[in-house]
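We now fix the convention by which a protein and its fold are recorded. Think of the row as the fold of the chain written in a discrete alphabet. Here is one such record, which you should read through line by line.
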Amino acid sequence: MKPFHFFSVKWLSWRFPLILLSITLPLELAIVPSLVAQTQAVTDPNNNEPFTPPGDDSPDDDTKGAGTRDGGYCTQDEVAEGTPGFSVLMPVESETIAQRPTFSLYIPETVARKVFFSLKDAEEEYDYQTIITLPKTGSEFSFLLPEDAPDLKTNTPYQWSISLICQQSLDPNDPTVTGVIERVESQEITDN
């Protein structure tokens, strides 16, 4: 009979995983609870009131559309105080008789050289998007709904949005103006 050696290869081959487990399990139990504590949701003790949307799914009468982020400027723009930013020069809720309406904007001096234009109906069955090149200097800027876009249908509201492209591609933080336009029969136009 051979004498038993504590460090024999047979003993280590099947007990090594147990030794490794006995070392790593306590470490895991010590580390995981601290990670769980770091990922718990943060609650605001000062905000206990739940949000309740308006009953008719419309905003209050005192709200305005066509808002912009960053005051209507790209973050790289050098802006003098009091200078107007990127904005729309038409009612944000418009009616038109034109199949291809005109959209009018004020574009300030900016690093942006293009805008992203999007138009869609409520069911998102009509969805048109394009990129439009801007003039080199800040000014009023108008454009017709491009020829490659389908004509607007009568009595269908369309949501439009126009975003300055401040860098190489569109970014969610780029200044954006939005509104609604609806094509109607000529006798149906109302003042907004």
Notes: Residues 7-39 form one domain. The chain has one helix and eight strands. Strands lie at 87-88, 93-96, 102-107, 114-121, 127-133, 139-144, 157-165, 176-183.
